[in-house]
Structures are given as C-alpha cells and as structure tokens.
Design brief:
Blueprint: H1 2-27, H2 33-40, H3 44-55, H4 58-81, H5 95-112, H6 120-141, H7 147-175, H8 180-183, H9 185-192, H10 223-242, H11 249-266, H12 269-286, H13 289-308, H14 312-322, H15 327-345, H16 372-405, H17 409-424, H18 426-431, H19 438-465
Helix pairs in contact: 1-2, 1-3, 1-4, 2-4, 2-7, 2-19, 3-4, 3-9, 4-6, 5-6, 5-16, 6-19, 7-10, 7-11, 10-11, 10-12, 10-17, 10-19, 12-13, 12-17, 15-16, 16-17, 16-19, 17-19
C-alpha cells in the first residue's frame, strides 16, 4: 500500500515540477514557481515521510527535500536570464526592500564571521533557511500577474483549505488516528532527523493535548503548522466573500468554515489567539466597529462561562494557561527567559545556527527556540531582531496602502491576504519557530513582495500625474 501511494506521489509531484520547469524555462513564465510551492509545501513533510516509508532511502528523501529550494533558484535564474539589460531593470526601492536586504545582509555577515560553536556547514544550512524566503519575497517583488493567474493561485489556496479539513474529518471520525501514524512520520523523524518517537500516539508530544486527546495536523507537518496555515485559507475566503457577487458567497463561506474547523481540530491556543487578532485587524481595516464590539462581548461571555459554568478541568486549564502555570505555557516562558538572558549577555548575538528548532541547530548548542523574534535576537543580536520586526511591520503597512489605493480587485485581494496573514502570525511567532511553516510563511512573503511591487507602481503613477 505504501508503495502504491509512493508511486502516486512521485507521479503527481513529478508532473507538477516538470510542468512548472517547462513553463519557466521555455515560456519565460518564471513567476509560475509560486503555483508549485502553493501546491507542494502543505504536503512537504508528509511527502518525505511517505518516500522514506516506501523506499527506506535517505537519498530519495533528499531529492524531495531540495525541490522547494530548487524551484525558487531556477525561477531566480530564469528571471535573470530573461532580462535583456539587467542594469536598466526598473527597481525602485521601498522601505520593506531596505529592511529585507539589511536583514539578509546582516545574516550573511554572521555566516562569515567566526562567531558561535556551530559548524560552518550548519551555518550555511541555517542561512539558506533565511535566504530562500527572502528570494521568494524578491520574486514576488518583481511579479506581474494577469487576473487569471491570481485567481489560479487563490484556487490552490482554497483547495488546500478544503482538503485539509476533509483529512481532519477522516482522521477524527473514520480512522480515529493521526494521518501521520500511517504515513511513516515517526520512522522518517527517527531515521532522517534523529528524533525519537514520543507521546502517547508514537509521534511527538505536539500531536496531543495535556488531557491526552488528539491534536490533528491533516497532511501538514504538525498541528501547529496546520493551525497557522489555515489562517491563510480563512483570510482568502473572507476577502473573496466581501468582494464577490452574492450568488458565489456560499462557496467562500464554506472555505472559511473549513478553515475554522481545521483550527479547532489542531487545538492550538496560540493559533486561536492569532485567529481573533486577525479578525480584530480585519474589523479595523473595514471599519467594522460593531464586529469589534461583538468580539469583546464574546470574550466577556467566555469569561463568565469559565468562571461560573465550566468544569473544574476546563477552568484550571484556562487559568493555568493565562498564568503560565500550564506545562506548555511554562515551557515557552523558560525558553523566552533563556533567550533574553543570552541577548542581554551578548547584545551582538552568539552566531547563526545557535537557536531555534531548525534541523541544522543541534540540541547541545541550542539557546531558546520557541519565539521567532528571540531566535533571531539570540543569533544576530538586537539589531537582527529589530530588522526582522521592521521588515514585517513595513510589509504589513505597505500592503495595507496597496489594498486601499489600487484599482485592481485581484491585486487588492493579494495585498489584503498578505497583510492579514502576517498580522495573524504575530502570536504564533511569539510561541514557535513559525518561519519554518514554509507554506504560510513563504506564500505570505511572496504576497508581501507582490504588494510592494504594486505600491512602487502606484507611487510612480502618482508622480507622473502631479
């Protein structure tokens, strides 16, 4: 059975990869790399697990591992090849561009300087994890899409949201087990990442709550990635619901409902908080002040329920979470304290590959690791953390300006989703190495880059009209 699924996987991924390559190389459509990433990244870890389960071959796994970086690098090379005179290519720098380049440049300096105990190879691998999202942003920054191409990208996002929920339903009501218990996830982790199976389900502790109930991940790498990724499906469904004709609205309501359903199946407290932060942001963007008031009323009702009507187990679960006495919450606090202590003692950082949960960071060297901001701060000092924060902030602000100013509805949808997702990810960034969630992280960086490109065009048009 595993071999059959492996052959089907190779067929689907191979066809998608080869189609994208021929579109890029022979037709000059280097921008179409984003379609492959949007369709492949959600299944990335499940694909690697299934490949190893069927073949027991680390070499074949490594081929699938490099596909996501390879498609980005090929897109970059094709972009450069098709520029007849690169020196005359119009590239007007915006604030987000400067912040992104400064952040990547600082990381490159830390790659070269002899700082930290990590090996140079581990530093290179870690720098790659920083550079590739930057290249995705750069490619988005230079992308010009027709309306049908933007629609195709959103269709992929919608299909991923619906499929993720369908698998969650399958896991919960038919299999009564995690998909990862069948895909070879634990075997892959042990053989490739040297991570022993843990928890009551033979996967990792991330796949269960403290009450030993299942936290589902669908075909994503873990429940936390699923919870963060469905924010994109919900934001995309919402903006299409608000900007489409009424006869199609039921379709986008279904996408939002499925995204919310997957969020519930993932049982991620940080993602639930992120969801409400994103709703608050959306309400501010559209001036839906009644929605904000309703949100506060719902929060008040929840507080009343917890205080007077909830079971003792649920009451203490909420209280322990808010007071950081819950084991998971306490673990975050410990990691934050360790990271802050390192940043205070070493304000210029301790070197790349010394913090976080990325594969090239060894356990014996790791300092902190459950806060994306602190992870960069530990490695590249306060300057690195601030540059990352400014890159996020300027990207969100510029995307909002595009949403308000552009006359193209499809472009406005891209800008809105990019900004909304980055705002929604702020809370998960505080509790996880969320830039590792490649589907939502890379696609939202592409969207931010696409929005910055449109903002540059709008600025030029305004100057010409004056």
């Amino acid at each position: 059975m595993a071999l059959i699924f492996f052959l089907l996987l190779v067929l689907l991924v191979g066809i998608g990869f080869l189609w994208t390559i021929q579109e890029m190389i022979f037709k000059g459509k280097w921008t179409h790399f984003i379609f492959f990433l949007a369709a492949f990244l959600p299944f990335y870890i499940s694909s690697l697990s299934l490949v190893y389960l069927a073949t027991r071959s680390p070499e074949l796994v490594s081929i699938f591992q490099i596909l996501k970086e390879l498609i980005v690098l090929i897109a970059l090379l094709v972009f450069l090849f098709y520029q007849k005179n690169l020196s005359k290519y119009p590239f007007r720098m915006q604030s987000t561009d400067w912040m992104m380049l400064s952040f990547l440049g600082l990381a490159f300096v830390y790659l070269l300087v002899p700082l930290g105990q990590a090996s140079f190879l581990n530093k290179v691998l870690y720098y790659k994890s920083i550079l590739i999202p930057g290249l995705v942003y750069f490619l988005g920054r230079n992308t010009q899409f027709e309306d049908w191409e933007i629609k195709r990208l959103f269709k992929i996002v919608f299909i991923i949201a619906l499929a993720a929920f369908a698998v969650n339903v399958l896991e919960s009501f038919i299999l009564n087990a995690h998909l990862q218990q069948y895909s070879g996830y634990a075997l892959y982790n042990l053989a490739i990442n040297d991570i022993e199976p843990s928890g009551n389900f033979g996967l990792t502790w991330t796949f269960e709550t403290q009450a030993i109930t299942k936290r589902l991940a669908s075909f994503f790498s873990d429940p936390l990635e699923l919870a963060s990724s469905v924010l994109m499906g919900f934001a995309a469904g919402l903006i299409w619901f608000l900007t489409s004709k009424k006869e199609y609205n039921w379709w986008y309501l279904l996408i939002m409902a499925c995204s919310l359903g997957s969020l519930i199946f993932s049982a991620s407290r940080a993602a639930f908080g992120a969801f409400f932060i994103m709703l608050f942001f959306i309400a501010l963007v559209f001036g839906l002040y009644k929605l904000i008031a309703s949100g506060f009323l719902m929060l008040l009702c929840f507080a009343v329920y917890v205080l007077f009507f909830a079971s003792d187990d649920f009451y203490y679960f909420v209280i322990d979470t808010l007071t950081f006495e819950n084991a998971s919450s306490l673990g975050h606090v410990v990691e934050w304290v360790l990271a802050l202590d390192s940043m205070i003692a070493n304000p210029l950082g301790i070197g790349l590959a010394m913090s976080g949960n990325f594969g090239s960071v060894t356990d014996e060297l790791r300092v902190g690791g459950e806060n994306q901001f602190f992870i960069y701060g530990v490695q590249m000092g306060w300057i690195g953390m601030i540059l990352y924060i400014l890159t996020l902030a300027t990207g969100i602000i510029v995307s909002l300006r595009v949403f308000y100013q552009t006359e193209n509805t499809q472009v406005a949808r891209i800008a809105f989703v990019g900004a909304a997702v980055k705002v929604g990810l702020l809370l998960p960034l505080f509790t996880a190495n969320a830039e590792m969630y490649t589907y939502v992280a890379w696609l939202s960086w592409w969207m931010i880059g696409f929005a910055v490109h449109e903002y540059s065009r709008i600025q030029v048009s305004l100057k010409k009209s004056l």
